[in-house]
Amino acid sequence: MVKQKADTTEKTKKLLQQYALRKTGCRLEVLSLLLQNKSALAHSDIEKQMGDKFDRVTLYRTLHSFEEKGLVHSIHDVSGAVKYALSRETSSQQQRHDNHIHFNCTACGQTFCLNEINIPSLSLPSGYKVNSLHFSAQGVCSTCETN
Ligand SMILES: [Zn+2]
Ligand SMILES: [Zn+2]
């Protein structure tokens, strides 16, 4: 357990370095929270987890800088709430971070990134250009399915 925590801290520091982000206390904590969660987190979830360690503005700026650098991506779930999830580490710059399906569980309300399912590229009529593409699926997640 102790070792796992140390691993997370190491990974967190490495990621911040990789994305050229300064290591601030808030960034380290928010990032390790996102690393430990399998599902995407809403701003309010993160706020709750942090208690009163950091104010709203600091958290907002932290998430914004993560998103700007491509370390996290935001997801609009079915209810319209914005959630944040870590972007998969991509080997090539060409590969888009948001090129995957998001799964909304109707039982627990959690949103998951299905990184292993790639969205095929679309052949659009000439003159059309896609800036962003969002695929989301609704159903029951594996945890809720077995309970
Ligand atoms: Zn579920
Ligand atoms: Zn995602």
TrEMBL record:
Any Pfam family the entry gives: FUR
- Mind telling me which SUPFAM superfamilies this protein's record contains? Winged helix' DNA-binding domain
Spans traversing the lipid bilayer = none
The cross-references to InterPro entries, in alphabetical order and at most eight, read:
FUR, WH-like_DNA-bd_sf, WH_DNA-bd_sf
The superkingdom listed in its UniProt entry is Bacteria
In Swiss-Prot or TrEMBL terms, this protein is called Fur family transcriptional regulator
